[in-house]
Specification:
Layout: H1 2-27, H2 34-41, H3 45-52, H4 55-76, H5 83-97, H6 101-115, H7 117-124, H8 127-141, H9 151-171, H10 175-191
Length: 198
């Protein structure tokens, strides 16, 4: 019986996260009400508060779900090729993820506004930074990173730049042009980091 209840609770939680993510991405966190979420999910307010405590708690869960999905996708680009090739692949795959409106809105518009930057970074748990740092350390160890760079510090700079690039794309009126420009500028920045520019 406990297993059945746990499975039902997990389904309810997953449904609320899916519904919350869709509503927050489309309408914005500040405009979505508990009534809208509960109606779309087919649950009571009690269920919402039981699982998440508040709408902010729901947003945290939505952010975590989208963020983990993005990092998992980026990790798939970090398994083949030289360290430099993997840094390039992961960085450009990050920009490609920005074509997804849900990714843009949840990760780089709604979650930061609703949760604040400190909580935003805390929920990420350093997964993004760890991925970038490991790749740059590997590039450094193989002599592919220019000697002037400290890979651990550079990881913070590159990730910060990618996040700001995401903000730029999210705020742009022409998404297609913004994404193309992002790829171009990112390539130029990466070329300046490694011993063998592409």
């Amino acid at each position: 019986m406990a297993t059945v209840r746990e499975a039902a609770a997990a389904r309810t939680r997953a449904t609320l996260i899916a519904v919350g993510t869709a509503l927050f991405a489309e309408h914005g966190f500040a405009e979505v009400t508990t009534a809208q979420v509960c109606a779309a999910a087919g649950v009571t307010r009690g269920a919402l508060y039981h699982h998440f405590g508040s709408m902010a708690g729901l947003m945290e869960a939505c952010f975590a779900a989208v963020d983990h999905g993005v990092v998992d996708t980026l990790s798939e680009h970090a398994v083949t090729g030289s360290p430099v090739e993997r840094v390039r692949a992961v960085s450009h795959a990050f920009v490609d993820q920005l074509a997804d409106e849900t990714v843009r809105q949840i990760l780089f518009v709604e979650a930061p506004a609703a949760l604040g930057w400190a909580r935003w970074r805390e929920i990420d748990g350093g997964r993004s930074l760890g991925l970038v740092k490991n790749l740059l350390v590997a590039a450094h160890e193989q002599g592919e990173l220019l000697p002037r760079h400290n890979p651990k510090v550079l990881a913070h700079l590159l990730l910060g730049g990618l996040n700001e690039l995401a903000m730029f794309v999210a705020a742009s009126r022409s998404r297609e042009k913004a994404l193309a420009a992002a790829h171009t500028e990112l390539s130029a920045v990466l070329d300046g980091m490694f011993t063998s520019p592409r």
